[in-house]
């Protein structure tokens, strides 16, 4: 579309200064960045409110139309309503109004129960259900109770196996875990469990809950002897408290002791429970170590793609290449919504042989590319997909790494025609030491020109490379082992090409890094020549 534009990036200490230059090291191939396209149907009505105010939630579709008039009868208070959806607070048996669960109901069958985004995950624990005789059921949450109550009220059939949990504050979390401890009359006055988080675990929230029922003495909860919460006797009732923990209070790579304890005195009735709730992203190591806990529950979380019904891709802007060195560069861009990050790049325009990506959902996208070659032009596009899977891709950009690429390169001839596949034999004499692991073949424009077989040898070296078909970076083939071309040493070559490779129609050719000669070229039709040098690059 537009002309190529280049910017030269000069790094001074840690300051990047960008100036217009005729020596292109960064640019793009079209005038504008592609923005996400598509019809972009509006999200489901009312879900914007959920995304703005909800924290931890559970959602389900009952696969039947819901009568919203009946739904409103279940609420203690109605908060929002239209002809298509309603939101209100659902009271739970035995709990005060502060424990009410917000419930969204859409007439198309969607039900979402949630607490607000300033409330901890641990608030969902239903200790009343946990008090029941063994087996203890930590999976019976207040959110689940609110959904059941709503389904009973509207007469909907509930298939609980279809429910999913999700925390709208933590788009990068995909799992939550609850670990509990307990203390009862007739046992020791204190009980403990231990927990250790792996060092590379991405923890989005750490929270706690402390519950006591019909207790004749005060109860306290501590972590590593530091009191988290305490309250006095509750002989004729129950009390629950919860809150969040800092990374310091539950830091990784250390076993932490979570203790429940009753004061000295005549403890005759009651029981108390404690819980640690974790919201996190599974990774290379999500092995959370536990000792002596009473119960454990972990469950994967998932973004409610079907509920939100978003079909609009992210908008990509501000694509740049910065911190360019002889072997690395950082690609950066922005999106108008949280999305993942992917860079496709390669050494030829439109041919992207490598990918680097980050699955985390962010609005600012820095991706570092490493292992690049010096003095090389790289072409790239960036991609971002939002939580609903809507994908956007930018136009093509390019940048040049700094330094000089140490290669043996014939470059492309001014006129590669006529072009024909065949077997080239000759010699190479480099004028400097060159490390080699691959051979690149210059193809004629719009063709599949390539090398099918290559051998380079002399009295001390014998290496070969074979083509593996039109897969990935098929213009390059790799030798069976890396090797070094020594300055002023002569090497023999045999190169068998396919399709339409570029050819230097001459017997000898002087390059920046030495000489290459043709002793024989036998084309695919059996004709012999002494002036057919393959257009190649030997490099690492």
Mind explaining what this structure looks like?
The chain is mostly beta strands. It is 6% helix and 49% strand. Strands 1, 2, 3, 20, 21, 22, 23, 24 and 25 form a 9-stranded antiparallel beta sheet that branches. Helix 2 (68-74) packs across helix 4. The longest helix has 13 residues, at 142-154. The relative contact order is 0.11.
Name a few traits of the molecule.
mainly beta, seven-stranded antiparallel β-sheet, 540 residues, single chain
Please give a quick description of this structure.
This protein has 540 residues and is mostly beta strands.
Largest beta sheet, briefly? 9 strands, antiparallel
> Which class best fits the helix and strand makeup?
mainly beta
Instruction: Assign an overall shape.
Output: elongated
Overall residue-averaged pLDDT value: 88
Low-confidence stretches: 1-40
Number of helices: 5
Question: What percent of residues are in strands?
Answer: over 45%
Number of strands: 38
Q: Work out the radius of gyration.
A: 33 Å
Q: Note the gap between the termini.
A: 34 Å
Report helical residue fraction: under 10%
């Amino acid at each position: 579309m537009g002309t190529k534009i280049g910017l030269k990036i000069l790094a001074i200490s840690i300051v990047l200064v960008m100036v217009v230059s005729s020596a292109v090291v960064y640019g793009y191939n079209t005038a504008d960045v592609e923005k996400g396209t598509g019809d972009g149907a509006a999200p489901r009505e009312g879900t914007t409110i959920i995304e703005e105010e909800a924290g931890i939630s559970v959602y389900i579709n009952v696969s039947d139309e819901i009568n919203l008039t009946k739904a409103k009868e279940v609420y203690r208070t109605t908060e929002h309503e239209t002809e298509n959806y309603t939101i209100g607070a659902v009271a739970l048996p035995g709990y005060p109004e502060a424990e009410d669960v917000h419930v969204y109901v859409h007439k198309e069958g969607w039900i979402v129960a949630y607490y607000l985004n300033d409330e901890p995950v641990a608030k969902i624990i239903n200790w009343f259900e946990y008090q029941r005789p063994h087996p203890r059921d930590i999976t019976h949450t207040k959110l689940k109770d609110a959904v059941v109550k709503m389904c009973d009220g509207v007469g909907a059939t509930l298939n609980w196996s279809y429910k999913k949990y999700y925390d709208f504050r933590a788009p990068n979390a995909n799992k939550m875990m609850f670990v509990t401890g307990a203390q009862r009359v007739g046992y020791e006055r204190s009980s403990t469990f231990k927990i250790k988080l792996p060092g590379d675990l991405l923890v989005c929230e750490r929270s706690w809950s402390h519950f006591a029922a019909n207790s004749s003495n005060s109860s306290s909860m501590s972590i590593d002897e530091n009191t988290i919460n305490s309250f006095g006797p509750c002989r004729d009732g129950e009390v629950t408290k919860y809150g969040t923990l800092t990374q310091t209070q539950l830091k990784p790579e250390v076993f932490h002791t979570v203790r429940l304890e009753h004061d000295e005195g005549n403890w005759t009735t009651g029981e108390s429970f404690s819980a640690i709730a974790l919201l996190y992203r599974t990774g290379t190591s999500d092995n959370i170590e536990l000792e002596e806990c009473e119960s454990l529950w972990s469950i994967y979380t998932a973004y409610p793609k079907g509920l939100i019904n978003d079909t609009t891709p992210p908008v990509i802007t501000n694509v740049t290449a910065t911190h360019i060195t002889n072997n690395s560069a950082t690609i950066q861009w922005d999106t108008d919504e949280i999305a993942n990050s992917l860079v496709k790049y390669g050494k030829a325009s439109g041919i992207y042989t490598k990918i680097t990506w980050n699955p985390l959902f962010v609005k600012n996208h820095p991706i570092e590319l490493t292992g690049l070659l010096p003095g090389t032009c790289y072409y790239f596009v960036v991609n971002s997909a939002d939580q609903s899977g809507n994908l956007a891709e930018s136009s093509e950009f390019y940048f040049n790494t700094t330094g000089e690429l140490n290669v043996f390169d014939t470059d492309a001839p001014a006129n590669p025609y006529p072009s024909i596949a065949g077997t080239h034999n000759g010699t190479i004499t480099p004028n400097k030491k060159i490390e080699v692991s691959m051979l690149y073949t210059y193809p004629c424009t719009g063709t599949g020109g390539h090398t099918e077989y290559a051998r380079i040898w002399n009295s001390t070296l014998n290496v070969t490379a074979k083509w593996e078909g039109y897969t990935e970076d098929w213009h390059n083939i790799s030798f069976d082992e890396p090797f070094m071309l020594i300055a002023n040493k002569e090497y023999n070559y045999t190169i068998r090409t396919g399709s339409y490779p570029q050819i230097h129609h001459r017997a000898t050719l002087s390059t920046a890094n030495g000489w290459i000669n043709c002793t024989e070229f036998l084309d695919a039709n059996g004709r012999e020549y002494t002036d057919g040098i393959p257009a190649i690059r030997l490099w690492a």
